[in-house]
Every structure is written in structure tokens, then in C-alpha cells.
Amino acid sequence: MTEGLNLPEYYIPPEIEGTVAITTLDRIYNWGRRYSVWPMFFGLACCAIEMIATAGARFDMARFGMEIMRPSPRQCDLMIISGTVTKKLVPQIVRLYNQMPEPKYVLSMGACASGGGPFKRGYNVVAGIDKFLPVDVYVPGCPPTPQALLFGLMKIQEKIDQESISKVRWYSDEPDEGIPVPILGPDLIDPRDFPALLKKEQEKEKQA
Amino acid sequence: MSEQTAVINKINQSIINRFPDWVREDEREGYEGLLVEAAHLIPFMEVLRDEFGYDSLTSVTGVDYLPEEKMEVVYHLYKSTGGSILVVKVQVPRSSPVIPSLVGLYPGAAFQEREAWDLLGIRFEGHPNLKRILMWEGFEGHPLRKDWVEAFFEGEFKPYEDRWPEGKVSKIETDKPLGKNINYPEGFNPETWIPDAKELLFQGTVSLKTEDDDPGLETEHLVVNLGPQHPSTHGVFRMVAKLEGETVVDLEPVMGYLHRNHEKIGERNTFSMNMPYTDRLDYFCSMSNNFGYALSVEKLLGEKYQPPERAQYIRVIMAELTRILNHFMAIGFFLNDLGAYFTPALYAIKERELILDIFEAVSGSRMMCNYFRFGGVVRDLPEGIEEHIRKMVYERLPRQIDEMDRYLVDNEIVVSRCQGVGVLTPEQAIAYSAAGPVLRASGVPYDIRRADPYGIYDRFDFDVAVRYHGDVYDRFLIKYDEVRQSIRILQQAIDGLPGGEILANKPAYKFRMPKGESYGRVEGPKGELGFYIVSDGTNNPWRYHVRAPSFINLTGLREMSLGEKIADLVAILGSIDIVLGEVDR
Questions:
Q1: What residues of A are in contact with residue B265 (Cβ under 8 Å)?
Q2: Which fold has domain A35-192?
């Protein structure tokens, strides 16, 4: 029950082992979070099927405390980008990410989500979700096997373990602005690119 | 093969005799079918439908013949009573590609014409709702035109130039402004640009709202958006439903959220490079997708590439296993949609895993098999897998499908939620170009394996599964029937599996492709999966089009949903069994 919770330097008598632990606030905070990660039930493409297979009986994601997959972003803290991210869909993905409450993590599953994969050169494809969202763990594969996804999820847990309650961004005073939602224009427009685009335009005018 | 060609020629001749002034034979090398003048298209098609019996317009697509400055629209038609495909083509000048719309005659053309408009810029006059379908409104250009280049353009055809010139890596990203896969038109300025795309995207939604059908009563319609992020839309599909109380009075499907530019990438690839891409169309059924593509390329390559006996049998085994896998998952997900959250799906996933074990053993990959090659399959069955398949098809699968039957079919909730809901009559099903289980559940016994046999399907003894009510319940039950028939085919195939070669030719990277076109179609688990390929004699296809069954089956979704309750919408969509990789391609 208290596995991984007790600090190794403290001796716990064998008769109360498993019921008492001497630990730090950070450790118990992370220990509680690492076994209750709720992924978002959000399938994009092929990888979503392997994600469902991971939730199935053979691979059983529930062993890691992750069996509750919620379709609503308000109830999730892990977004698994399971498939090709297209330009038409990326405004919705960014909006969903902004709607997730902190703490939140992003796992990029498969080649397409990580860098465009085989569809990288497509005119409607965003070559990697990391162009828009901060990705915590990349899982390679096309699609990754359920074992690979489980390994990625364990990496998320490891990342959670290393966080400190005094430094995490969701308790800091800086307000969370969210990520600006891309716009569908003649092509995909990222509002963060506006200064660069304007500069380019001005340079052109100068030359003319 | 020659016998079949003779029959097709005879049919073509009889049609030409009926319209000597309007129609002529397509005499280009390697091409088949009839060329019709655009002005006479509608009366011609009307006669084809009503007199000659070509009642189903299965595929509509365009080809951009840039060197000849022509656009061509290709129609594939068949009779719902069986027989081979009839190809009809219309040519228009590339500068003003306008063609009369066939939606009035064949409502099934609605989405496909919109797709041709979206990707090729061919305008269909008289189409009731001609707007972009896969890309968003406001997108610049028509991407499948040959002179349209994408942002990450490296060269017309693969394989591309060396990416390590003089030992230094060169990446396409570094040359692009902002390093992104983005192409803005000349003079684009984000400050002065007026964002009208969003309004256009929701145009359908807005027009749904402004209709006043009962002047005496003041009512307000409610517009509900399901998706693209919705647990029951099987991916990133979106439905815009207009409700009167709880009843659906209008519905518009919105798609393209997973448009991965399969066709544009396919035209840059060589022929053999496209095989792994077909895996990712309908990602449940990679083996059947491989089958369809291999078939259409083999048709182009000719007799020399006919697969040997053993490969033919292996192909049938893999395709039928795929069908069983798909239907198990469809049953599981359908019950998910009805509210039996995940428990039936767990049973289905269990069977899927066991079939995936076979796929992994033969091809090395669970989902993306990339197993078929032109003229056979890539490698032989590994030792011991034959015994495993035999056990599966004789013992495990029949037992499991009976178990699913026992648990679910007579369940009171399933029956009361499904019977009489979302009815599609046989006439409607044919008119809307429905295919596969959707068509057969409406009482049309059309199965390509029987109606226009390919591979060695003419050797097996099986029944065409058919149900007659056309409601959600029948579309659910027909999956059981089809699994049982597939098991029958599998039992015969595994018993008759001969030894010998598995590839007709030496494994090759490049092929000497003859000029011409071909349309190969298979009865995929979701319906007719067709590949239309035009070759100009080089290593790369000039045109590569996929007739995706899930996409075209959705044309009838509005018809099925009108007058139903909003809660049943989810069940109706679940019963059509779509996969977004194939809908959007």
C-alpha cells in the first residue's frame, strides 16, 4: 500500500510496515497523483485503436491507476495525442488543452503526433503537435504497441515523481494565459507568428 | 478475363448504338469506358439508370490532365443485380471545369462531387450544397491539381534527391518561412486579412437555424453540435443536428478533421510505396485495404502478375480474418454507443487481439500489416501459424460469435432501442450509393465477392448475408451473419491451402507500368473499397483515388436520421460503422 512512499533513511518497525510511512509532503503529493492519472478519451486516428487496446483486458491500463478515461477535458489531466494532427482539427485540440485544469500533461503517441510521421508532407497535416502544445513524453512507433504506450505512461509517472509542490507552475502566481488558438485562414495561422509575418511583409514593402 | 472484356465491350457497344451522337468509346491506350459530352450527361445518365439498369453510381472522381489542359470526371456505375462496372467519363477544359451535377439522379454523388470540387476545383452545376468537404472554407487553392504544390514540396516524384548533399543534412523545414508546413498566398498580411473562414465553416449550422415551417406556432429550433471531440463519433467526426424538441429535423455531417492528404501523397509516391499508406486508410482492416490496392495495380500490370495459388488462398484468409476482426469491433463499439459502456467492447477486443497475433506472426506488425505485394504476398506463413488459424476458425471464433449472440442479440434494451430506428429502404440505399453491410441490411443482396468475383472468391461456398428491414437492428445483426459466412470461407480456405510459391515475380522496388487506368474493388468489411489508378507509364501514379466505403455510406446518414430522436443519432451512426481514417483519407 505504502510502497515507494517511505523515505529510505527512516526505519519502520516490521509490525507497522505498510500502515505507517515517514515521508515528505512532495513525495505523498506525487504518490497520490501518479496513481490517479485520468487520460482523456480522445481518439484521433490509428493510434487511438491501440490506445483502446491498451485499455482492454490483455494490456490493462488500469494496473497503473489510469482506467478512467474521460471524454470531457474538465475531468482529465493527461492528453494522449493519439494520431495525426491536421490543420483543420488543431484549433479544437488547442482549445481542449486550454480547457484542461492543471496539473496537465501531454503524451504524444506515435510518429504522426510527434513529427508528422508518414504524412508529414501533407498539405493539411501539422508536422508534430509540439508546434502548439508542450509535450511531456513522446512515444515512437506507427502505431506504438500497447507495451510502448504503457512505457510512455510510466514515464509520465516518473515525471510526476520528480515534481516539487513548491515549484510547480499551477501554484505559482503567474496567471495561466493558455495557448492562443490557431486560426483557419488561407492556411493555418498561429497567432504567435503574427510578429514574424508582419516583419516579413514590411521587409517586402521596403524592397519594393 | 477475355470473356469478361468481351461482355463489357458488348454492353458498351449497345449503349453507343443507343446514343451515336453523344457517346464515343474511350480509345486512349489502356483506357476503357465511354466518353460523354458534358451537355448530354444528365439525359444520358437518366437513360442508363432507367433503361440499362445501372442504378448505383458507386464512384465519382476527377482527374487533372495538365499536359492536355483537360479535366476529366470519371463515373463508375454498376447494376445492383450484379455484373461488372461501367465507366463513364466527361471531359471539360481545364480553364473552366463546369459539369452538370448528378445529385438529382443519384443522391449518392453528393459528397463525392463536393470532394471533387474541394480537391480539384471542378464545379458541379446544380449541386444543392457545393462547398468544401475535406478542407475548410477559405483554404487557398485546390490541392489535387497538378500545378498546386504543398508547403513541404521537395520534388514532383519520389524518391527525392539526396538529403545529405556533401555530408551535410538538409531539411525541408529550414528553407520554409517559420519552418512550418504552411503556404500563404502572395501578399498575405495577418493584420489586414479578414477572417471569414470561421463563418463559412459554420454556414451549414446557421442556415439550419433560420427556417420557419410552422407560421402559427412560435417555436425555436435548437442546433446541437456532436463532435469533433465526442466519445460516440468514432473519432473526429462532427454532426450538426437541428432539433425540434428531441426530434432531429435536419442534419449535416461535417468531416475532414482527419484529412491526411492520402491522394496527394500517393501521387508523389511510387506504386509500391503506396502499399503501407493503404494500411492507414481503414486502420482496422489493413489487410483488405492492401487487397484492394494490390488488385487494382495487378489489373494494370496484366496477366504476368497474377498471384500464384498459395498467395491467393493466403489473401482470402487474411481478408476474411480482417472482416471478422472488424465486425467484432463494430459490434463492441456499437454497444458502447448504446450505453453498454466498454463491457461488450472488452469481449470484442479480446478476439481482436487473437486475430492480431496471427497478423503479427505473418507480417511483423499488429495493425499496419503492409503484407500484400503486386503478384502475391510479401512472405510465407511462418511455421505453426496454420495450425493456430485452423484452431481459431474451427473452434474459437464460432464459439465466440455465438457467445456474443447469446449476450446481446435478444437483450431487451438493444431490441427496443434498435428496432425500427434509422430505416433506410432498399431504393434509398441504392440511390445513396450505400455499400457493404449497410446496403445488405436494407434488403439488397449485393456482395462484390458474389456479384463481380475477384481473387478466388468464386470457388468458395458461402451465402450473401442479407436482412430486410434496413433499420439499426438489422445493420447490427448482419454483422453476425457476415462473421458466420466469413468463418465458412475461412474453413474452406485453410483446408484447401496449397503449397508452392507466394509471389508471381521477383520482389521488386520498381515496376514497368503500362499506360492506362484501372479500377479495382473489393468487398471490404465496410463495403465496396475501390482504388482508381491512372498511370502515365512512369513509376508514379498520375492519379490515385480511393473510393472509401465509410465516406460514401455517410451520404445516407441524413436520410436515416430525420425524424429520429437525438439519442438515437448516436446509435444510427454506430450502426453505419465508420472509420475516420477512411472517411477523411
A1: 118-119, 121-122
A2: Rossmann fold (3.40.50)
